């Protein structure tokens, strides 16, 4: 897989999705670049020296970042060109991989092994007095099931991260009372036209 930026989609293929480490790494990198560092990203939008540098500004540490307003155009540009594209890319990846997880998987490398284990277990005679643990059989999970579980978990994580990020964005940008879902959908609509 080639290196991609946090907002550009990786090459989507079933192999990408089934390589859960690569999928997790992509999501972690994208979230780390944009959402986990949202405060720094928003601070970078503040124009500190509108009237030239004032040496006295360094005499007191500024701890309340809300005291410095962010230009509304800079906020909108950040949302339209950085935040929403990153979220959309992650949504695209999760949606694609969810489709892979719910599709038949003819290339499943463990399919024959699972079928063999299942047939063997149906024929097994167990004397639980001799081996009390023998009744426990944990069939191997199909890789589509494993992927579906991962996608479900990652979607939950995504909801939490987006809500947290959006809370900071709306606070710092003095933004509307729109939810992150409404704002993202509005951005999607503007892009289509």
Automatic annotation (TrEMBL):
- An example of a Pfam family matching this protein is MIX23
Q: Name one GO cellular component term.
A: mitochondrial intermembrane space
According to its UniProt record, which protein family does this protein belong to? Answer: Belongs to the MIX23 family.
Full protein name: Caffeine-induced death protein Cid2, putative
Taxonomic source organism:
Aspergillus clavatus (strain ATCC 1007 / CBS 513.65 / DSM 816 / NCTC 3887 / NRRL 1 / QM 1276 / 107)
């Amino acid at each position: 897989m080639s290196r991609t930026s946090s907002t550009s989609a990786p090459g989507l293929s079933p192999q990408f999705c089934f390589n859960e480490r690569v999928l997790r790494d992509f999501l972690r990198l994208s979230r780390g670049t944009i959402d986990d560092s949202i405060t720094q990203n928003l601070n970078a939008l503040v124009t500190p020296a509108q009237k030239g540098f004032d040496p006295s500004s360094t005499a007191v540490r500024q701890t309340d970042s809300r005291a410095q307003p962010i230009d509304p155009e800079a906020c909108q540009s950040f949302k339209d060109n950085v935040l929403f594209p990153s979220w959309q890319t992650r949504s695209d990846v999760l949606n694609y991989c969810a489709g892979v997880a719910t599709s038949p998987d003819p290339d499943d490398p463990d399919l024959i092994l699972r079928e063999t284990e299942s047939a063997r277990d149906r024929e097994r005679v167990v004397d639980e007095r001799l081996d009390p643990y023998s009744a426990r059989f944990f069939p191997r999970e199909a890789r589509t099931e494993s992927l579906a579980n991962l996608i479900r978990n990652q979607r939950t994580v995504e909801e939490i991260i987006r809500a947290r990020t959006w809370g900071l964005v709306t606070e710092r940008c003095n933004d509307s009372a729109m939810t992150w879902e409404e704002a993202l959908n509005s951005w999607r609509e503007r892009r289509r036209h």
